[in-house]
Amino acid sequence: MLNPSEELTAMIAAAQAAGAGLQKHFAKLSDLSIRAKSGPADMVSIADEEAERTTRGILAQARPEYSFLGEEGGIVGGGDSRHSWIVDPLDGTTNFLFGSPLWGVNVALARDNEVIAGVTYLPMLDELYIAERGKGCWLNGQRIHVSDRGDLITAVLACGIPFAGKPDHPLFAREMALLSAHVAGIRRTGACAVDMAWVAAGRWDAYWERALNAWDMAPGVILVREAGGVATSADGSPLDLHGQNVCVSNGAVQDALMKVLNQARDEAA
């Protein structure tokens, strides 16, 4: 990427440092102190907390006046009310703990609640995705673009499946019933960071999920947009970063996908 900003340079350093630390703990379920967050299926480990401290420290050196919103520590205000770092130090914790390589570090910068820069680092896959508004999306130094498939019948979609303690199980079941017969495939990796980055890279044609937080989706929003795709709420309305749902796609399948997802919502109501 040509001429990354000082902020993006710090974000890359923070994500890589956190990722290096996390790799030391990868798949060591019995060695980590683990507790449940919102329920028994929603886990957090000491590795998550260490990674968040690492990212926060590096980002604070670059712009100490920006606020910091992290998954583990919540929001810490800064003197600049317009700018905020948004960090998920370990997206895909269950994958991480049980030995799946599909997990990553998410770091984003928002201005007035609009994401202007994002980094998703997938350490076990050696994939570093970066984007900055107006500068394109890049994977390991190579510019990437969303796919150009325009028909659902040829599309591979990704989704998040609500686990125990999450809402909208009947809605998700209806979505799958309506979509599965009309697409080339539906995948679930278990990590929003992976799925959104892979839409940007053209590996998936779209991804949607509900019951998310800003730190889950923030980097992926700008990755997809700078790769030529679109990011909206799950009903097709303008994206609210704190609205707890998202749909990203290559743009070409967006209207058809929204038609089915909204039909499912109406039928499940």
Q: Any idea what the CATH superfamily of the largest domain is called? A: Fructose-1,6-Bisphosphatase, subunit A, domain 1
User: Which sequence of SSEs, written as H and E, runs from N to C?
Assistant: HEEHEEEHEEEEEEHEHEHEEH
Radius of gyration over alpha carbons?
A: 18 Å
The level 1 CATH classification of the largest domain is: Alpha Beta
What is CATH's topology name of the largest domain?
Fructose-1,6-Bisphosphatase, Chain A, domain 1
This entry's quaternary arrangement is single chain
Helix percent reads 25-40%
Strands side by side in the biggest sheet: 4-3-5-6-7-8-9-10
- Spans of 5+ residues with little confidence (pLDDT < 50)? 35-43
- Integer tally of domains: 2
Structural class: alpha+beta
- Gross geometry: globular
Give the DSSP E fraction (strand runs of 2 or more residues): 25-35%
Characterize this entry briefly.
It catalyses: a myo-inositol phosphate + H2O = myo-inositol + phosphate. With 269 residues, this protein is an alpha+beta fold.
Write the layout of secondary structure elements.
Layout: H1 6-25, E1 34-39, E2 42-45, H2 46-62, E3 66-70, E4 74-76, E5 80-91, H3 93-98, E6 104-111, E7 114-122, E8 127-132, E9 137-139, E10 142-144, E11 156-159, H4 169-179, E12 185-187, H5 192-200, E13 206-210, H6 214-226, E14 230-232, E15 245-249, H7 254-268
Parallel strand pairs: 3-5, 11-12, 11-13
Antiparallel strand pairs: 1-2, 3-4, 5-6, 6-7, 7-8, 8-9, 9-10, 13-15, 14-15
Helix pairs in contact: 1-2, 4-7, 5-6
